[in-house]
Amino acid sequence: MDYMIFLKAMFDYIENRVTEDVKVEEVAEEAGFSLSHFRAVFKEATNESLAKYITNRKLNHAAFQLVNTEESVSKIAMDYSFSSHDVFTRAFSRAFGETPSNFRKNRRTVSGTLIVPGVFGPSVKDMEDLIMKNEMKKSVNDCILYGVPKVSYFESYEITPFISSLKACLRYLGQDISYPYLMAASGAAFRLIWNPECWDGGNIDILGMRKDPLEPLKRAFNAAGREFKMLLKKESFLMDLCDKSKNLNKDIKVGEKENFIKFIKDEIDQGRPVIGFGIVGPPEACIITGYKNNGEELVGWNFFQDMPEFAGTVEKESCGYFIRKGWYEDPMTVGVMSIGDKKIDISKEEIIKEILYYALDIMNTSRVNERLGGSKAFNAWAEAIDDDTQFPNDAPLPLLMERLMCHTDAMTMIGEGRWCAGAFLKETACEVINIEIELKEASKLFFEEHSIVQSMAKLLGGFGMGEKHARALGEIEIRKQLVEMIHRASQLDMDAGKCIKKALEKIG
Questions:
Q1: What is the pLDDT averaged over residues 66-85?
Q2: pTM
């Protein structure tokens, strides 16, 4: 009897429940065999016991968490169902030859590895390959990459979907790049966009911050030293934007559903997650970590998957991944991006100089299509908040919520963006000769700008999108204070830009 399909299903089952206290009896029962028979079959195929395999998979996932998060060792031990810190440490040390703390300190490489066809998961690279990569030749209709870091509005300070998604995918592939660095490289850390004609929920989208909508994405990939390819739906708004900017080339193409499925399957089958735009909720970036039913269903992480308004469109894997049927037909699905191989390394100094020139250009760009940028965006934001006719005394709650959403998006662009700008400049101040003083001063000004946004949020009762926050925004006295804060932030932004300009003049 050919047991390979049964084993593949059980590897998938275990990987999907690696944080649970999975019992060997449960796995055997799910496979439809007696425990003794399944143990014998499993041992013959893998040369290790089922119990040891389950523990090893938990340890490999835990190793990934150690090098890619700041969670305590005790918390990680609990997350993977070890009875105590000591039990986890002993098991980890036996498996990998060093304690969890030293493993983290030494930044060991842990990334996605093929377990069997259709199942990938984190693996410590110094260890032997997992099991029988080539022994099951049968085609499979499902393929899932387990262990890709989660992206979410609810569990992280990272709230720019594309940057967070790219960072998570790179980490799964074994490349550790900081969020502030990618925010700065994409230009998202230096943007403020405001549409003066309406309360525009699209102000915050990084696809709208440059004339070429894909420029921020291209620059982030370039700074990561990676190639990419992109496939767009012909009828999507993003396709229209790219067409207008004459942006289609050999790496950016248009496709139908069958092209999308092939694109996604080719990448996932090679162990590489895919960045999607849409899939669940608005056309923001998300991570596609696998496919089911030969591509008719997608699985992954999406910033909107846990929001009640989208709950009816998704199911969930045990590990938390969304499962999305009808993904291509959803008008909010607009495109997918692959993460290619590493390019020839560019010097860090050249990348930093390029980011600084780009940052200055973004901060000095006064208009992008119908939206304003730079100091004009700050002024338009302040004018909108100061306009009493936009906040009538009898304003219905939905109207106030719309105003609050746009105001919060602007606070996010400055609050998150300028904190990342400050962190990037602080980290890199010493890496380009002779401009350390200017970059540190710009960093300090950006951090002050971030602090102003914290004060804005405090006035409204915190960072939130609830009724109390919307009612607070409707109060004249609160809005007058907000306007003053916006103008102060604008001045700090201009002063930081002057510091960056001085730095660039120094290095030519």
A1: 93
A2: 0.86
